[in-house]
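Lecture 7 notes: from sequence to structure.
We start with the chain below.
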Amino acid sequence: MTETSLPAQEDHTDDRRPRRSRSAWLFFRDLLIIFVIALLASVLIKTFLVRSFYIPSGSMENTLQIDDRILVNQLEPNLMPLSRGDVVVFKDPGGWLPPVAEPKKNPLAAAVDWVLEGVGLAADDANDHLIKRVIGLPGDHVVCCNALGQMSVNGVPLDETEYLKLPDGVSAVSQQPFDVTVPADSLWVMGDNRYNSADSRFNQDKPGNGFVPEKNVVGRAVLVTWPADHWTWLDNYGDVFSGVPDASPAEVGAPTSTSSGLGPDE
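Predicted structure tokens for the same chain:
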């Protein structure tokens, strides 16, 4: 009886370990690449396309509520022109907002906030920005108020009931009369909560005489993203301004004229 010896079983343990290590490294490498690409895409989107802000005051009620989060289209007005009725975010032209001390944060919280805001995952709480509705474009003649309490643009009275918030029993859309012609490259802006908004009317003694330079506009607010029950597209109510004729080129370059009393900064 002959003995048959079984072939020796080869030990592949050492071969499997390098393959497993290589697979794990490739997985983490791919994950890192995806993360970096997503991070760069988010930064580019925030820089050139959209930006997030939160609403700190009630000056745009009832269109926007305190602590709403919004998305702002930064292609306007750089690539696409603004229209009357657009809701815009803009940098303070000078003196519209009181100085605000930056809240103290521990280094870790500050670093986390900086990263989240940088990639667009947190709302920007910039203290030098405001949000209002565009009423007058360059060259527009904006006057308030007529016998019915309406404001007019280029001689056309506006019916703003769709978006205005006025005190009970009040029909005049502004507590302060004014008569202005918007200069070139500027805007006349007002809040929807008309009796609780420190807008163009109340900043005529500030740099720019209450007008907002178009270069200060960050973009047009297009969407309420949070809270979920406030989610909505923001309308510019084009029908309100549909009958307003455009200003002539001569009017666009005309000097401004103002006539109003100044109210408290709200």
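Points to note: Helices lie at 13-48, 107-118, 238-241, 249-252. Residues 13-48 form the longest helix (36 residues).
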